[in-house]
Amino acid sequence: MAPLRSADRGRRKRSAARSLPAMSGPLYFPSRGPRSRGDPRVEAELRRRIRAKGCITFAEFMEVALYLPGGGYYEGHVEIGPAGDFLTSPETHPIFGALLARLALQMWRALESPRRFAVVEYGAGTGSLCRQILETAPQLDADFASALDYWIVERSAFLRAMQQAKLPDLLARVRWDDPSDGVEPADGCVLANEVVDALPVHRLAVESEGLRELHVGLAADRYLELRGPLSRPELQAYLSASGVPPPEGSVVEINLAARDWLRDVSGRLRRGYVIAIDFGGETGEILRSATPRGGLKCFYRHGWTEDPFDRPGLQDLTAPVDFTFLRAVGEELGLVPSAAVPQGKMLVALGLREALARLDADDLRAEERQRNRNAIEALGAPGALGGHRVLIQRKQAPEVRAEMTEGREEIRFPLSPRAAMAWPE
Predict the structure, then answer these.
(1) At the N or C end, where does the chain have fewer CB atoms within 10 A?
(2) 205 CB contacts (<8 Å, ≥6 apart)?
(3) Tally of CA atoms within 13 A in the half-sphere of 327 that contains its CB
(4) Residues near 243 by Cβ (< 8 Å), separated by ≥ 6?
(5) What would the pLDDT profile of 57-116 be if each residue is shown by its tens digit?
(6) CA–CA separation, 65 vs 43, rounded Å?
(7) What's the pLDDT score for residue 413?
């Protein structure tokens, strides 16, 4: 999950403790001090794999650290919300889901109001977005609410259990799927809010002699980076197709897993739309702005950490999403690009300013009003969550515009719970 961005990471160079065949330096120990231990199951699995192979790609390291059953970050340690590791838009303010419900309504109408309309949410976190959409839908259109089938696609058994515990009153209205489950394609829309940035990435170093991939090895029971040959030909093909050479000395992240994810997404739609919301940019801007530190972010307790090898399994790892790549892969799969806008612009079109105006009309204490205002404004602010990008793709479906519609669907905009929330100031 991508958090609100703050400080950047540092890194310093040290000499290699040992080398492996076909590997080379310089090697990095990004940590400035002793590393904290991670989840013991993750640590054991990483060491087993590295000792068996000599080294592993960073993508494999990230896959284990985030998704190892029973031990990975998203499999037992993730905490979302003001008291956790990061905030996403649904946890920032419930108006986010209310406005996306309005967009889903427009998509349902664009498909000529089918009798069944699936909202398929990938990586549903705490289940907040699901609740917001299902509770708002009846306010918008009773027929739309009756047509809704809500599916959550969640690979983490830990998060599935958390979602079901937080949605006890909605269990009859929500279906949970594993990404590997086979399903019949449906009419509807797919939602993916801060999902793609947490897929495992390969990391490549741009050297004067060419590209080298960053692998992970062990020295004296300590993780270190090793530079070696590219593990997959698609990595070179990705950069060649971009036509944008990254600066020499920089490190870039390539998310090949996004192709498999989008293939699964496309297979779930007969007709409809894909809404992907994340932090990132276009291929050119990501590659041209690449630095020696790369774009990888490590997040723990609402703060950036410096070292991806610190606390494996206990901290989040994310990388900027390449929306050019998502569009290109989507077109290969029959998904036509429909819109690409900042989150803030989309939410304003759907009624974010009206939500702010509502605060002044409601009978709220000054502190309650200000906390709600701060949260709603963060959803639209370019320097906060409003700077996330929204890519809408369509499959066998007409264009749809994200805008407020005339008529009866005035939303009774939800507010943050008055007594319970302690939003960061």
Answers:
(1) C
(2) 211, 212, 213, 214, 227, 250, 251
(3) 15
(4) none
(5) 999 999 999 999 999 999 988 877 665 566 799 999 999 999 999 999 999 999 999 999
(6) 8
(7) 45
Gyration radius of the chain over CA positions: 22
Q: What is the CA 8 to chain-centroid distance, rounded?
A: 19
Q: Specify the DSSP class assigned to residue 36.
A: P
CA distance 40 to 236: 35
- Determine the Cα–Cα distance for residues 128 and 126; give it in Å rounded to an integer: 6
Tokens, residue 9: 């990471």
State both tokens at 29: 């120990």
Residue found by looking up tokens 């009866």 in the block:
408
| pLDDT tens digits along 127-174 | 999 999 999 999 999 999 999 999 999 999 999 999 999 999 999 999
Q: Where are the beta strands (DSSP E) in 194-300?
A: 202-207, 210-219, 222-228, 251-254, 269-278, 280-281, 297-300
Q: What angle do CA 348, 349, 350 make, to 5 degrees?
A: 90
- pLDDT at residue 232 in the model: 97
pTM, two decimal places: 0.87
Q: Which residue has the tokens 């540092």?
A: 10
Second CATH level (architecture) for the domain 1-8+21-30+38-397: 3-Layer(aba) Sandwich (3.40)
Q: Per-domain residue ranges for the chain?
A: 1-8+21-30+38-397
Q: How far apart are CA 29 and CA 12, in angstroms?
A: 7
Amino acid at 124: A
* Cα separations in angstroms, 420 against 88, 107, 203, 259, 260: 18, 34, 41, 40, 40
Query: How far is it, in rounded angstroms, from Cα 246 to Cα 210?
Result: 11
pLDDT at 77: 84
Q: What pLDDT score was predicted for residue 82?
A: 61
Span 341-378, pLDDT tens digits: 999 999 999 999 988 888 887 778 888 889 899 999 99
